[in-house]
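DATA SHEET
Item: assembly model
Revision: 1
Owner: S.N.
Input lines:
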Amino acid sequence: MSERIAIVGVGQTYFKSRRPEVSELEMVNEAVMAALENAHLTIKDIDAVVVGNMELFEGDYQVDMWLAGGSGAYLKSGFKVQTGGSTGSSVCCTVFDLAATGEFKTILGIGFEKQDEGSSQASLRSIHEDVFFDVGSSGKSAATAVQSVALDMMHRKSITEEQVAIVRVKQAENAMRNPNAHLRRKLTVEEVMNSPKLAWPLRVFHMCPTSVGACAIIVAPESQVKKISNNPAWVADWTNIHGAIQPFYGSITPSTVSTPLGPMWAWSVEQAANRIYKRNGITNPRKELDVVEVYDMATWAEIEWWERIHLCERNDAHKLVEERATWLDGDIPVNPSGGVTSTNAIGASAMQRVAEVAIQVRGEGSERQVPNVKMGLAVTAGGDMYSAGVLIKKSL
Amino acid sequence: MSRKVAIVAVAQTKYEASNTNQSNSELLWEVTKKILEQTNLKFENQVNSGLCIDKIIHCSEDFWQGRTISDLTLHPEMGGYAMDVIKVAADGTQAVYHAAMSILSGHHDVILITAQRKESETVRSSIENNAFDPIYLRPLGFDFLTAAALQATRYMHTYGLTEEHFARVAVKNRSNAKNNPYARREKAITINDVLRSKMLAYPIKQLDAKPVADGACAIVVASEEAVKKLTDKPVWITGLGNCYDAHYPGDRELSHSEALSLASKKAYKMAGIKNPRKEIDLAEIADEYSYQELLWTEGLGLCDEGKGGELIESGSTEIDGKLPVNTAGGLLSGLPSGVAGMAQTAEAFLQLQGNAGARQVNGAQIALVQGTTGPCGQSHCVIILNRRKGEIL
């Protein structure tokens, strides 16, 4: 490895269902300006800009071109990356790679989505893996993908429906403490349990919203970090992992097809965490990590990820609920931001997981700050089977 | 910078006007298979330790397949299973840039870069229109062709270039393509043929424009330690630079490419090139439209501003000239956009390796590859390749 690197600035817009008053460019610019302000830098200090979003969602081809005036990319290095729901973390991993070369002073990474300007569900229908046998006929969706994970968890007696509702209430409480979050409404267990079914046992209040917003991070190599920040969030390690596509499985989503490795989606989450743990000598994540952000596209997924990233033993997720371990005041807080179930602007979502861990490590979480965070992990999931793991530390 | 990065293998399909025999997946599998056979490499998921492909960078854009996360269905054909995979949504040169940077970061040792595109399955202009801002430019009906026409007109107006200058580029590149086994077989053309071909958007005529093409390309880049085990004829990537320009054509002086000038300066600096005109032996330049080869050559500092016309007239960019440009025929001979930057990188690699067959430029040591993304060359990427490792970097 060439240079050690750190996140020196984080910026986000607030998130809503609709923002007709701003264009994508103006919205992205809000996040960029917030990140620059957070890092005490100006756009002149930035060397490169990497952008990511779901290009078909808003229907903008090569959107980084139009955005050049708002992202700050004008006359700077950069390009666009995209990997589905994990786009934001793919941008992060790309930015981390670029920063570690030592060829750049500071790099800006941007993830955004303006879902009010397109039909995300219509676009998502197009991902079906097999053009000839699969498209359109199977009724597959993110909801049915989560459904099979949820059914599996209930079957394993890992968690009850009521406990899932309790975890959703926790997410709502966290989101209420996060001024940038989209859904900031107090929820009760009864409300969650009585919300309409999407694909039983998955209910509406378990599922992530359709959000509009942007997130930006600024990353610098060690030689620059000292000049920029006395409170950097050191990126100790990062990994990006892709599961597998399972063509010709008819109506079963590839993410939940049982393979020798288990459901593929969950597998990539587990792999991302395992790689980080192995390379960084982490043997007891629940004890060693101070905060965790996971990509909880639904509450069921958050709970599945607890097991997959070894915060508890397999089938023991209910214990974490009983002990309230993953609450803000628990011993291993998960998603102090409120997570994806509270805010989901797709291209931004996976970056927000990384950004929130950086915020927590830097002690900038105000009302949602977990005390004394020295080391945190972000694990993402998206595009059916992409996951990234990012380990962030207060000091290296 | 202590680490070094080299290209160790390339593979291409034949680039055809319309390939109805192979799907996107099959095109990709053809080049991936060729790479695996050439290098004997395995993927990370197939080995417990040691030398392996530890990352895949796929270069594609969703619009061309009409599906979101367009790489998703293509992973089986490029080995993207239980692997680090990332998708770059830009020209192929940017994917090579990303891969080289990832090697230089110390996080990866061997990266497979893949790209495929079937332009024949869709309508380019309808896709390109979506690259313009949705408020002011998109409703005007712009596509890359009509935007390029404005740029070409501006270029002619500023420096007095003529349609004949542009036609010469098309003739040269189509002539070079006859010795490229991957290029489609087309009859030779003359300057008059170009000038008399169908007008698309003044001054761009049918033969001044990149034709529709289908095809795929794969490249393997590796770190210095890995290179030793993979090939005795590596081609080193010694310089990298990329840069965005402003989006609105009216915000730019279209007859001058500031972004390309900056991108090339970064690449020259990294590669320790002080006098590109003397040091660079051959160049692969994104000639989506014929005028662009001349304008980009100026932007790269390979000739004076406004002198692109004289350059092509002088013959020095012919295959036997002082600075051969687009020895495989360039985009004008039919490369799919996106794949183009990779195909041109592959050509420079083959030239420096001495494996370019009948189109071989003798004694070439340093090559330049330039790729562009967006309308009127809004974003540029420059890669310097060297047969020798070089001291700088």
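QC remark: The radius of gyration of chain B is 20 Å.
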